[in-house]
């Protein structure tokens, strides 16, 4: 509130009035007059003194120099000499300037020379009656300081005595108003340390004294590598050097950018400091020669120090902060602010504040202490503790417990000595707190929360994430991780016991989530009493084993770990109450231990090697020493379980037994998988693996498993099935309507009177397992041909009828399987060729056996699995087969075997031999049965065959023998018979290669005939190198034939030579087998020495008399060489014949000869040439050329010249349509003869060429007999028309008018 001006004025007026009244008193007025006269006298005395100094003394100061030297010598205790003195005034104070001030030793030698010293005299000298300086300033002195090896100190060469220093110079300097030293240079030589010379330059010192208060400042520039600057300041109170015990004050030291390691050459440190640099600020409080308080600001880097002799070296990258230490009468106090450090090995201490205060016990109170901290990194402090001067036991405990985490806002206080605290109090919070488990004490990490308490009780709250609790004395997997952990707990101390109340503990991790509540009370004689209830909101079934305590046996925990996989638990609870010394409360009277809950979607692997149960829903119960698992839902290999229980009656027993019982219903196929996947599958050598089943059944299974001796597991099971379908192999018929019961144990499998239907017929199956592991399967039934035909669909069954009974046996031991099937075949009739034909009433035994072939080195049948198997077959007395196969994982191959018909079987060294001796072998029949081009299902490598009658391609070969062998990719065969003899070789590489030499090949007339080219268009032809010395077809001898062919650059190149006594045929061609545009080209030449004989050899005797001929040409067509494609046929033909005569021919001899002989002309017309042609036409020559274009053959100059007439032909012939359009001109007056050579075209061995010529020269002259005729129409019914004797004109193209 502002002051009131009127009030202030009244107060001032009142004070003036009071002063006037006091001054008006007589005594006061008298005293003032005396004081006035005294001050006046002093003023004038001082004025006279000043005038005397200014004008009388100071100008003559040089005359007083000896007196001044004596005074200074007396005061300093050292002889002083001055070279020159000047006087002046500094304001109102006299000022002296001394030049050449020398301090001398006892021998009067100068040891210190001060060239320039200024001194201002103080008027206080009048009061003390001694010189007192207002200012003493020394400029640029150079002082050498030395300490000898004995520790004695010398300044400027003068020994310094402690007493003289204190009594002389020290007291005199403190008595001056101000002492200044500017720009001094000091050298320090410490012989005691053996240190090198140290020179300190630019030393400035300022000492100011006022009564008992003394303030000073000192700055030094040391050599640059040592430090940038040293700054020392002080403010003290004291009367004299001899009274230092009574001095008090404070000092300040600053050391900038100093190399602390280098300074230790001249300075002693309380710790070993081999390396370090930085800046230090120190504030020191001193009293009675004792340091009472220290405050240090440090900023150091690259620091190495050893705080104790037995401590390792501490290597710091940086060290910063403020450190405070205080000492007082009752104790001490230590404090740090913003303290931070970082070591080279990664230890880091973030900025933190802490304060510690301790008071020693006194007569009427206990020791007490306080500690507070804003943040403590326990891991960093633990790592640093190894470098600090601590008790070894403390270091060991820190290393053992390994504390970590941060403690924040900590406030703690206590009374009493360590280990016997009378009271204590603590409050704070913590983050990521952790300790290592030691002995029975659990460890933990990641714990965060708050704590508040004292010696009577307190509270603890947790709010933690990613927590790990380590309990090696409780769980086999001691580390339990929690995603979250929250708790509200409290404790209290009651009668020496600690009672912990768990108000609410919440936890969550990947295994479970739930809540815990209850209490725990310690007991001096045991682990304590507990009363805890827990509820799990969620739990993983596979994690149950991890939370089973070590009190439960190892075998049980191992079984739970492997048995329960996956799944989720719900409605799970834990109840634990009682004295923990009596856990797990076997009789239920001393306490309660019960864990129960439901789970779903779990996998139960109840025993090693047995199939697992999937999708299990059920209950889990631990009640005292009993464990029970009930599964109400699940699947076992596709089957649905009705109920499964797994129980261990006594968890503490030394021989824990797991009893499992259950019922499963489902597909039989899944039950077979169950057998296969169980140890029983190995026991029976997995013989059920290939079985395929359709249908359902019910499994009843019981197991008794000693967990310490699982190899003694007891198994008892039954599987009941009805209306099932079973298939052993895809190639075999299935069993239907399979009904029965299968019983099994761990090593036995049995079934009696299992009924089934096979191919419509009933059968029974018995299965038994012997004590030696031998499994015996017996089956009996019947088989009908109709059902076999329907199932297999093979043509061979068309020749069979009826049905027959059969029996079978299979013996299985380990990997050895023996099979035997038998049937009399009575009831089955066969119309197959000999030796496979029989009547229905005839019995002919059929036996099929499979046996393992043991390795030679095997000591016993069970020692080594067979690497081979043998199949035996016998049919009656004439058919035998024996085959050995090698069994590999990747392949099954026949090593050797024999099929013998009518002969005793003899196994070859390798390969498969087919040997037969029969009266008749109808190859055509078996080709129809097995299909054209069918290949053997087994790799035949040898053939030995004899047949009295060999039927093939509608022809019959008698007394036929074949000896053939197959080596790699080549067949070699020697054949011998009445119609065929020689040696041939066939190689299947690429398109194949046929080679050999046959002495004779005779093709008899047959009931059927297969023409070349019939069938599908070939895509490739083999290479051929074949010589036939004598080739006879249908009774006609063609002579020697040589045929060579090669596949080269995608084309088939062939050459053929036919040679006999009457003529030769040679030709060459090529075939391009392209899928869209195949092409065949043929170039040939036929030479007939005697046309008459050659035609007779080809089956046309007396067609032409005498004569020679040559026919050559070049033809091509789209297609293979096996069939001519007439619509695409193109090329050229040339005929030249001479000196022959056409004989009178009957119809059908040949169309070509009918045309050339002209004998049909008289039958078509009634002219006067009958005597010329009817009895045969003699020719001197036949010559002409023809061209073929797309199946149309054209000729313009064909002439037949004979002695009776000259005939000229031109026109065209349509080969695909078998039509013609020709002009024929006859000149009967001419005496030329017609050549006979063209008749060679009818030679059937020439193939397509002869047949083509035959088409060209069809009978063209119908009924005409005149000079000129037109021949049109088809070849079968030509039309002849006389058109006159004019010159023959070119006929119109095929299809136009004549």
Tell me what you see in this structure.
- Residues 30-1280 form the YhdP central domain.
- InterPro entries: YhdP, YhdP_central.
- The chain crosses the membrane at residues 34-57.
- Pfam families: YhdP.
- Keywords: Membrane, Transmembrane, Transmembrane helix.
- With 1298 residues, the protein is mainly β.
- Among the domains are: 312-436, no CATH class; 1023-1282, no CATH class.
- Helix content is 13%, strand content 54%.
- The chain contains 18 helices and 66 strands.
- The chain has a 66-stranded mixed beta sheet that branches.
- Strand 56 and strand 57 (1063-1072) form a beta hairpin.
Offer a concise description of the structure.
This protein is mainly beta and 1298 residues long.
Per the principal axes of the C-alpha atoms, what is the gross shape? elongated
What fraction of the residues are assigned to beta strands by DSSP? Answer: over 45%
> What is the straight-line distance between the termini?
154 Å
Average of per-residue pLDDT values: 78
Oligomer: single chain
| Unreliable spans | 857-864, 932-937, 1007-1015, 1145-1174, 1229-1266, 1285-1298
Count all strands and give the number.
66
Summed up, the helix count is 18
Residues in helix, %? 10-25%
The rounded Rg comes to 67 Å
Main structural class:
mainly beta
Q: Please summarize the sheet with the most strands.
A: 66 strands, mixed
């Amino acid at each position: 509130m502002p002051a009131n001006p009127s009030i202030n004025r009244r107060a001032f007026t009142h004070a003036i009035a009071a002063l006037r009244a006091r001054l008006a008193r007589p005594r006061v007025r008298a005293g003032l007059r005396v004081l006035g006269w005294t001050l006046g006298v002093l003023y004038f005395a001082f004025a006279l003194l000043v005038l005397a100094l200014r004008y009388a003394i100071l100008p003559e100061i040089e005359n007083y120099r000896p007196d001044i030297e004596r005074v200074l010598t007396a005061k300093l205790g050292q002889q002083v000499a001055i070279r020159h003195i000047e006087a002046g005034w500094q304001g109102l104070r006299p000022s002296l300037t001394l030049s050449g001030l020398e301090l001398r030793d006892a021998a009067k030698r100068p040891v210190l020379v001060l060239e320039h010293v200024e001194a201002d005299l103080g008027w206080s000298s009048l009061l003390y009656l001694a010189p007192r300086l207002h200012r003493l300033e020394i400029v640029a002195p150079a002082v050498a300081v030395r300490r000898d090896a004995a520790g004695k100190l010398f300044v400027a060469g003068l020994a310094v005595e402690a007493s003289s220093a204190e009594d002389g110079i020290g007291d005199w300097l403190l008595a001056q108003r101000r002492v200044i030293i500017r720009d001094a240079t000091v050298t320090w030589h410490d012989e005691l340390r053996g240190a090198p010379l140290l020179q300190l330059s630019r030393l400035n010192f300022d000492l100011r004294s006022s009564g008992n208060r003394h303030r000073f400042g000192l700055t030094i520039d040391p050599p640059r590598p040592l430090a940038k600057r040293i700054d020392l300041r002080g403010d003290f109170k004291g009367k004299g050097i001899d009274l230092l015990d009574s001095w008090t004050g404070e000092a300040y030291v600053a050391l900038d950018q100093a190399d602390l390691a280098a300074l230790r050459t001249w300075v002693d440190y309380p710790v070993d400091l081999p390396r370090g640099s930085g800046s230090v600020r120190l504030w020191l409080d001193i009293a009675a020669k004792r340091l009472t308080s220290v405050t240090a600001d440090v900023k150091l880097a690259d620091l190495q120090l050893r705080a104790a002799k037995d401590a390792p070296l501490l290597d710091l990258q940086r060290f910063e902060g403020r450190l405070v230490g205080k000492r007082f009468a009752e104790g001490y106090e230590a404090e740090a602010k913003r303290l931070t450090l970082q070591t080279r090995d990664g230890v880091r201490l973030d900025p933190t504040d802490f304060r510690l205060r301790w008071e020693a016990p006194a007569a009427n109170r206990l020791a007490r202490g306080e500690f507070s901290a804003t943040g403590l990194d326990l891991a960093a402090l633990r790592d640093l503790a190894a470098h600090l001067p601590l008790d070894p036991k403390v270091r060991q405990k820190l290393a053992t417990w390994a504390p970590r985490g941060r403690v924040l806002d900590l406030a703690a206080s206590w009374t009493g000595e360590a280990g016997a605290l009378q009271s204590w109090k603590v409050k704070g919070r913590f983050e990521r707190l952790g300790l290592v488990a030691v002995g029975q004490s659990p460890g933990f990490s990641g714990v965060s929360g708050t704590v508040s308490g004292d010696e009577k009780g307190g509270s603890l709250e947790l709010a933690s994430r990613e927590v790990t609790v380590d309990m090696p004395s409780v769980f086999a997997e001691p580390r339990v991780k929690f995603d979250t952990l929250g708790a509200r707990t409290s404790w209290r101390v009651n009668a020496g016991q600690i009672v912990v109340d768990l108000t609410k503990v919440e936890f969550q991790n990947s295994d479970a989530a739930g809540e815990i509540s209850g209490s725990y009370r310690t007991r001096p004689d045991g682990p304590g009493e507990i009363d805890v209830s827990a509820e799990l909101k969620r739990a993983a079934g596979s994690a149950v084993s991890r939370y089973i305590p070590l009190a439960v046996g190892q075998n049980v925990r191992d079984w739970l770990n492997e048995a329960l996989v996956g799944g989720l638990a719900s409605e799970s609870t834990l109840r634990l109450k009682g004295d923990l010394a009596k856990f797990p409360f076997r009789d239920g009277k001393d306490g309660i231990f019960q864990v129960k809950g439901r789970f779903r979607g779990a996998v139960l692997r109840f025993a090693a090697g047995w199939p697992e149960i999937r999708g299990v829903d059920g209950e889990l119960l631990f009640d005292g020493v009993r464990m029970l698992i009930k599964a109400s839902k699940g699947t076992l290999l596709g089957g649905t379980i009705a109920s499964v229980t797994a129980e261990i009656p006594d968890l503490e027993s030394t021989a824990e037994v797991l009893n499992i019982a259950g019922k499963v219903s489902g597909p039989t196929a899944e039950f077979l998988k169950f057998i296969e996947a169980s140890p029983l599958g190995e026991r029976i050598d997995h013989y059920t693996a290939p079985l395929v089943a359709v249908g359902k059944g019910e499994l009843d299974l019981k197991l008794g498993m000693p967990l310490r001796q699982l190899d003694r597991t007891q198994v008892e099971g039954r599987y009941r099935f009805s209306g099932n379908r079973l298939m052993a192999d895809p190639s075999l018929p299935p069993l239907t309507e399979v009904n029965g019961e299968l019983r099994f144990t761990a090593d036995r499998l049995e079934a009696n009177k299992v009924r089934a239907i096979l191919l419509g017929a009933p059968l029974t199956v018995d299965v038994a397992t012997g004590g030696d592991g031998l499994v015996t399967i017996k089956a009996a039934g019947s088989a009908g041909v109709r059902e076999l035909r329907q199932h297999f669909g093979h043509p061979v069954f068309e020749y069979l009828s009826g049905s027959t009974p059969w029996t079978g046996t299979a013996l299985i031991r380990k990997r050895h399987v023996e099979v035997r099937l038998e049937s009399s075949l009575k009831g089955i009739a066969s119309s197959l060729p000999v030796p496979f034909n029989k009547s229905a009433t005839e019995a002919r035994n059929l036996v099929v056996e499979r046996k393992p072939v043991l390795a030679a080195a095997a000591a016993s049948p069970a020692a080594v699995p067979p690497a081979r198997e043998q199949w035996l077959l016998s049919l009656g007395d004439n058919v035998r087969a024996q085959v050995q196969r090698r069994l590999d994982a990747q392949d099954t191959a026949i090593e050797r075997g024999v099929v013998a018909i009518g002969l005793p079987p003899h196994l070859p060294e390798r390969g498969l031999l087919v040997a037969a001796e029969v009266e008749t072998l109808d190859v055509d029949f078996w080709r129809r049965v097995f299909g054209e081009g069918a290949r053997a299902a087994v790799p035949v490598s040898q053939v030995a065959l004899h047949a009295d009658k060999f039927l093939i391609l509608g022809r019959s070969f008698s007394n036929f023998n074949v000896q053939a062998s197959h080596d790699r990719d080549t067949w070699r065969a020697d054949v011998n018979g009445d119609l065929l003899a020689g040696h041939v070789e066939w190689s299947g590489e690429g398109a194949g290669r046929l080679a050999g030499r046959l002495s004779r090949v005779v093709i008899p007339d047959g009931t059927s005939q297969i023409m070349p080219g019939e069938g599908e268009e070939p895509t490739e032809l083999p290479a051929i190198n074949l010589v036939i010395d004598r080739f006879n077809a249908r009774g006609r001898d063609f002579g020697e034939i040589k045929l060579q062919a090669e596949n080269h650059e995608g084309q088939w190149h062939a050459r053929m030579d036919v040679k006999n006594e009457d003529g030769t045929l040679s030709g060459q061609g090529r075939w391009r087998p392209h899928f869209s545009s195949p092409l065949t080209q043929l170039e040939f030449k036929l030479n007939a020495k005697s046309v008459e004989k050659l035609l007779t050899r080809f089956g046309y005797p007396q067609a032409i008399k005498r004569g020679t001929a040559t026919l050559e040409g070049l033809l091509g067509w789209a297609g293979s060489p096996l069939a001519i494609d007439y619509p695409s046929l193109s090329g050229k033909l040339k005929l030249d014949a001479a000196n022959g005569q056409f004989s009178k021919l009957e119809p059908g001899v040949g169309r070509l000869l009918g045309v050339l002989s002209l004998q049909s002309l008289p039958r078509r017309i009634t002219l006067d040439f009958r005597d010329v042609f009817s009895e045969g036409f003699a020719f001197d020559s036949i010559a002409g050329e023809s061209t073929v274009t797309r199946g149309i053959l054209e000729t313009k100059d064909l002439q037949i010249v004979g002695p009776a007439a000259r005939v000229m032909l031109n026109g065209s012939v349509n080969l695909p349509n078998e039509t013609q359009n020709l002009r024929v001109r006859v000149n009967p007056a001419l005496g030329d003869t017609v050549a006979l050579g063209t008749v060679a075209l009818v030679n059937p061995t020439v193939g397509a060429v002869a047949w083509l010529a035959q088409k060209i020269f069809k009978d063209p002259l119908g009924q005409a007999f005149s000079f000129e005729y037109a021949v049109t129409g088809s070849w079968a019914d030509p039309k002849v028309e006389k058109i006159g004797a004019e010159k023959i004109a070119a006929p119109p193209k095929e299809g136009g008018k004549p």
